[in-house]
């Protein structure tokens, strides 16, 4: 917020079990817009669950995705005093690239840990000169969390997310949320040397959850002169009989 042309992200997803034992499927659409660039991802996910004991499981997942890239160079402020730039003369419209990813998740009622690589293919979007290159890099994620019962009405849910990208520094998010009577969730998240977020959510019914978060840079970029932070909202709805199998104490 507070910056004209600031990034905007919209995401919708749906996932459900299938009639085949332990197999689930999910679909997702994500749209990212920043400046002249718009990217849309279409994801198809499959996961297979293996029971290690009565209360512990391992899920293996694979992801197939399609990526569409649009760049409108007309939205750029260009200096044409020396003539127009031929590299910016033709927009990019719906440039298609496929990808594939995978992950594994181990979980119990009060603990989980997972590792994933959402995209294996390092797609080269364009390369027109030695000074101009845009390439997707592999992202490696490790996530873990647990649930601590403070008393029968209050749960503490600390979690950790670590992301590594070749050529960039390792990024780490440390979060802690409390859940009151399995209804109201609130807490904080800190991205090391980067940002601080406040989180709040409410389980309106067995089916409906709504949440809101506010993220503010913890560096000089977070000053009012530059931006006013980032606001994110989420709505989750569980359909049919599956509501009984979802545990709010475990959904982070």
List strands and helices in order, with pairings:
Blueprint: E1 8-17, E2 23-34, E3 37-51, E4 57-71, E5 92-107, E6 111-117, E7 124-129, E8 132-135, E9 140-146, E10 148-151, E11 154-164, E12 171-180, E13 184-191, E14 195-203, E15 208-217, E16 230-237
Antiparallel strand pairs: 1-2, 2-3, 3-4, 4-5, 5-6, 6-9, 7-8, 9-11, 10-11, 11-12, 12-13, 13-14, 14-15, 15-16
Provide structural commentary.
By secondary structure, the protein is mostly beta strands. The protein folds into two domains: 1-75 and 92-138; 145-252. It is 0% helix and 60% strand. Strand 10 and strand 11 form a beta hairpin. It is globular and about 70 Å long. The mean pLDDT is 85.
